[in-house]
């Protein structure tokens, strides 16, 4: 029986918890999924709102704020358009940190 490695304490657990918390709502997961599909060009907030069928802009703003605070997405104003994108490397870094803390995640 192989022994699982010890969790990597070098990972900022507070940051990891914040990122996981940001993923803890179906609407925020849907936002990230849409942004992943959009690729590096991202999506305008209005387009994102339409694709997700979110009626109130304040509802979308609340969820976007969680993702921005957690560093999972960015926003850039281009004239009158607010463009949303996945943060460079955010999802890859999340996977790396989870593997480091959970020791690879095997269940045997």
Automatic annotation (TrEMBL):
Highest taxon in the source lineage: Bacteria
Q: Cross-referenced Pfam families, in alphabetical order?
A: HTH_20
* CDD domains per record: HTH_ARSR
UniProt-listed InterPro entries: ArsR-like_HTH, HTH_ArsR_DNA-bd_dom, HTH_MetalResp_TranReg, WH-like_DNA-bd_sf, WH_DNA-bd_sf
Q: Which UniProt keywords apply?
A: DNA-binding, Transcription, Transcription regulation
Q: Which residues form the HTH arsR-type domain?
A: 18-100
Q: Which GO terms describe its molecular function?
A: DNA binding
UniProt protein name? DNA-binding transcriptional ArsR family regulator
